Amino acid sequence: MINQFRHNPSFYTSLNTELDSFLSYQKTRFPLEDMLTMDMHCHDFNSDIPDELIGRILNVPETWLPTEDLLKTLKHHGCNAFTITNHNNARSCYEQAKNGVDILTAAEFSVMVPDFQVGIHVLTYGFNEEQEIKLNKLRKNVYDFQEYANAQDIPTIWAHPLYHYTAKVMPPWEFFEKMALVFQRFEIINGQRDTWQNMLSKVWVESLTPEYVKALEEKHNIDSYRYSRNPYEKSMSGGSDCHMGIFAGLTGTKLYIPNLQERLKKESSARLALEAIREGRMAPFGANNQSEKLTVAFLDYFMQIALNSKDPGLLRILLHQGTTQDKIIAFATTNAFAELRRHKVTMSFIELFHGCFTGKKAHFSKRWFISKEYKPIFDEANKIAKMRNGAPVEMAEKFNQSIENIFGRLNDILSHRLKKKLESITIKSKPETKSLNSLIASLELPSHVRELLGSDTVESSKKKNKMESNTIDTSNFLDGLSFPFLASSLILGATFTSAKVMYNTRSLLASFGNKLGKFNHPTRMLWLTDTFGDQNGVSMVLKSMLQEIKARNLPIDLMVCSNTLKPEDHLIVVSPQLEVRVPFYEQQLIRMPNLMAIHKIFLEGEYDRIMCSTEGPMGMIALYLKHAYSVPANFYIHTDWIMFARKALNLDAHNLNRLRRLTRAFYGTFDNIFVLNTDQQQWLTGPHMNFDPARVHLTAHWADDWFIPRSVQKHEVFGCAINETVILFAGRLSEEKGVMELPKIYKELKKRKQKVCFVIAGTGPMEEELRKEIPKAKFLGWVDHHKLAEIYSASDVLVLPSKFDTFGCVVLEAMSCGLPVVAYKTKGPKDIIEDGKSGFLVSTRIEMADRVAQLVQDNNLQLSFKAAAIKRSRLYSANRIIKELLSNCGIEG
Predict the structure, then answer these.
(1) What was the pLDDT predicted at 464?
(2) In this structure, are 306 and 405 located in the same domain?
């Protein structure tokens, strides 16, 4: 699916090496026989009020996990001392203690740092019910909270120090300096956080030497002894932070109690564990992690929401605190889960899948009633149940592999069915202007979700499905697609959410790494495109870009979806799961890749930014990755779609305005936009689009090195007479390129009694009609890019009747070979050609014919234009253009 000849990722390798070394050392710190094993950070159903605002709006708990199931898993994974750290309460601990369970009272309190308006989580141990009431009252001020806990000898731990809540912006460094004075213990191995975050926490805590802490006390005028018993001896802990119970106990802390076995005869393990925590005799354990565990956890959580949640009610959503965006997300989420619950097949799948995550293998007899195409999914689900009950080693990785297999199978089924349905769609009338405009006008999403996905009554269904000449029967179209779509969306949603939660502090982690001088994330950009192997200008430009990336060994990889291209250095090729033709533009093929595969590539490739140069599926994937991984995303506009829609699709003013709003919404989500001409730059920053000028960068293409004047004769290259004027057109033979003006230009030149040899290089849908209109023209077909220099050098003038080109690569290539160009005064060409010096810019085809005639009749003018064209083309240097591009993308060249 992808090439392996990319860079050797070293960032995560170095992180994992550091973690392995740290954990190996922790194992040797204390005698094995004198250690208790405890997961110091885990949750059950009493974590019923989530910190995340969306969860509170939806009125769902953080988990439905029964306490007994959590304790069972902790024992299965090797724990022999127990606690439960639910949010802001210790109800589960009290209940278990009353039942005779030896358990340490604990909770994870949400505490505010008032001077920075940042919310943090504080793991707190060994308090009683009266003290819990007081701690909850003090949660609004971390200094009061910590001072009380210290006075009561209640040990606290700052949970996941690099993951905060309620912060609108990244906390300043002073925030961490003060927290270093307030806390003595820190959780640095958190099972739900990635290794990067954990190792940065570990390096920071190790930097808190007694000398440094004393210097911070003086700087901030804080007496650390108010908040901890021994502020100069920092200690570290670990915990799974598990809510679903799947990975509970796989990350935790070894607690050292001298003469443990003798003391256990007289004292409880909970009391001994509390003593070790107070004294800082803790050795964290766990394993490296990126987002594997969190993906599994969110998938199981989403399934439990589908199985257990209730409608929160519209008034709750509207009246709850939060922004309009929060409430829209909550409304969309509750509607999505309502639709899931309506679909019995999907709910059966969810019930089966959730059961497997809890270790309940589905009975083999159920397989008899499953269709053949779904049996592999059933088998993978049962693998999960088997792994859940087996040895925990590499469980997260194996779970994720099964999830990827299930997702891939669901997508294969969905793609196969969708392709067949799309192929069956027929538009009754021909794709003329009227029908296309009416079809676009009918493409609207209803405000009611039910109207889109189906109706409950036969009568309303009949009304909804009544078809006009150019509409699609939505209900019939969706038949057979609902289950694979809903089930795969559930998996993809969990994958997206886990990445979003894991990496939403990316800017903080990068800043933290720079401050510490360690674990700085590499600067690497993934460049996404829907076209690379196609015969068009965009593909040629990207191929030139790839060659420059290779030659300079730039930290950029291109990614394209194709089943014909082969991967190479800096070029990643993913296989399409679906290929369909674009309606009304049959030359364009849409290719849909496996999004989970791209997820994996992005993470393993260690990318930290995105460039995209096509508005198709890869454009949407770029936005998906941007929001999932919290990285900057740039867009490189090659095509003026408004002009294309007007010229090629003949859209009316109403639909052009709709398209403008759509492109504004799409481009507006990118951090930077790159354009190829000043017209487009002014349009994007003007009143129609209103983008910040600082985000819109003018860039350009360059002509490859082989585009230089060649010593060739026109009669040798084209077979025409020496005294004939060779008029060249090079490009795609399509209507938007203005090729149907070529016959008219030819006739104008013939009127002027010019001996013309008309040469057309290129292919396209208008070729047959052009052959009829200009039967004496020489059609070269598709010309290899390396051979174009000879074509340009053997010609007398290049004509470009297109008003569509955003740049005009053929203009620059021709000028690089000393060939003057006559083009319309529009978009890209007018930025390249110096009118009357290195070529001509015209407004009409008659003027174009006049300028061509003027040029070919004057040898001195030809020589002057040739020299000026070469000189002008050299300003478009690959070195300068790439250097500016890299700088605007935040990459050092």
Answers:
(1) 47
(2) yes
**Nearest to residue 374, comparing CAs of 383, 366, 386, 363?**
366
pLDDT in tens, 441-472: 555 555 555 554 454 444 444 444 444 444 44
Residues pairing with 285 in the sheet: 252
* Distance from C-alpha of 99 to C-alpha of 102, rounded to nearest angstrom: 9
One domain for residues 744 and 789: yes
Average pLDDT, the chain: 89
Q: How far apart are CA 850 and CA 842, in angstroms?
A: 10
The number of distinct structural domains making up the chain is: 4
Measured on CA atoms in the order 427, 430, 434, 437, is the torsion positive or negative? positive
Residues 269 and 342 in one domain: no
Residues 261 and 124 in one domain: yes
Residues 303 and 284 in one domain: no
Amino acid, single-letter form, for residue 763 = T
**Same-domain pairing of 388 and 529:** no
In this predicted structure, which of 260-264, 479-483, 736-740 has the lowest mean pLDDT?
479-483
In a domain, 576, yes or no: yes
Taking the CB of residue 359, how many other CB atoms lie within 10 A of it?
18
Distance CA(291)–CA(403), nearest Å, equals 13
**Residue (of 701, 619, 603) closest to 668 by Cα position:** 619
β-sheet bridge partners, residue 636: 674
What's the whole-number mean pLDDT along residues 482-489?
89
pLDDT(192) > 70:
yes
Q: Above pLDDT 70, what percent of the chain?
A: 91
Q: Which domain holds residue 378?
A: 294-425+472-486
Residues across the chain: 893
**pLDDT level of residue 567 (50, 70, 90 thresholds):** very high
Tokens encoding 611? 């460039």
Alpha carbons 141 and 144: distance in angstroms, whole number: 5
Q: In this structure, are strands 571-574 and 556-561 parallel, antiparallel, or unpaired? A: parallel
Task: Specify the pLDDT at position 827.
Answer: 85
* 3-class SS of residue 227: coil
Measured distance CA(865)–CA(868) in Å, rounded: 5
pLDDT at 701: 94
